[in-house]
Each structure stands twice: as structure tokens, then as C-alpha cells.
Specification:
Distance between the termini: 33 Å
Structural class: alpha/beta
Strand content: 25-35%
Radius of gyration: 14 Å
Number of helices: 5
Helix content: 40-55%
Number of strands: 5
Strand order of the largest sheet: 1-2-3-4-5
Largest sheet: 5 strands, mixed
Order of helices and strands: EEHEHEHHEH
Amino acid sequence: MRPPLLSIEVTRLDAGHARLRLTGDLDFDTAPELVDAAAGLRADGCPELTIDLGGVGLCDSSGLSAFVVLSQGGAGTVRLTGVGIRLRQLLDRTGLTELLAVEQPPVRAVEDEREVG
């Protein structure tokens, strides 16, 4: 049996705030899962969402589109954490860093990714 393309682990942090930890690929096939999970949390009283992307290997235009849908689909904020350097570059190029709250990586993490890349 094949593992799921994307797994979403939900943790309620406090009243009105939840974290979605993603593992896998965020693409055409899986982006609707993120949108559905976020919509369910918001309907359940969690308008503030933190999306941890540290376990995401691939994020295509459908994943980026899901971020736009989430940012426009609720009263609360969407914060992205665990954003790798390549995804950060995509977010910068598309202007999404201005739309979303994107957590800056520690300076050392950026240096490590430059050495690998």
C-alpha cells in the first residue's frame, strides 16, 4: 500500500488557533486536502492558522493557490512556518510573502541550505 501523498497533523494551540503540520507533497492532487482541513478548523472556531511546511518536499502552483484561498477565506491570519529556501523564493517571486505571514528561518538554517544547494 502506498503512503498518502500528503499527511496533515492538526494541533489546537489555544482558543481560535490551530497548527497544521504538513508532510509530503502539496500539489494539484493534495492542495484541496489542505483547503478542506483549514475550512473545517475555521468552521469549528479556529480562524488563526499556522501551517508548518517543514515536511513538504514539493509545492507547486496548486499549493500556492491553496495559500491564497486560505488567506482570503477566513477572518483570521495564515502564518507559514518551516518554509525552505526554494519555497521562500517562490513565495517572494509571486508576491505571496506580502499577503501571508511567512516566518523567517534562523540565520544558520539559511546558511546550511546555501551550502547544500
